[in-house]
TrEMBL record:
This is VOC family protein. It holds the Pfam family Glyoxalase. Residues 4-130 form the Glyoxalase/fosfomycin resistance/dioxygenase domain. The lineage of its organism: Bacteria, Bacillati, Actinomycetota, Actinomycetes, Kitasatosporales. InterPro entries: Glyas_Bleomycin-R_OHBP_Dase, Glyas_Fos-R_dOase_dom, PhnB-like.
Amino acid sequence: MSSRLNPYLSFDGDARQAMEFYEQVFGGTLALNTFGASGMADSPDADKIMHGMLETPSGFTLMGADTPPGMEHSPGNTFSVSLSGDDETELRGYWEQLSAGGSVAVPLEKQMWGDVFGMCTDRFGVPWMVNISEPAS
């Protein structure tokens, strides 16, 4: 897999409806993962979307999720740029440069779903998410 750069949208509890709407608009394959399926089964947010990804026949990728518990949803600030793939060296290099002089919200480290993931805001105020998956064998 090569690295991918795409928008990542944040929602206030209606990510499922929004992502299903985008699926109707653009077509393609939609995958939705809930907080409940990701280890928070007893949470009041169990049915909310932790991660959604739409891949379209035109080659578009759109990701989105409900704002995680404990984080504030800020209308007008509802996007990030997502970098993902399995080239750890390349993606860590991007992370180091993007986070330098900015702020780190989630350190780039192994997460409960098995990937290495981090969130930062670069020195220009642009929010980034970096996800490093295991190389396909």
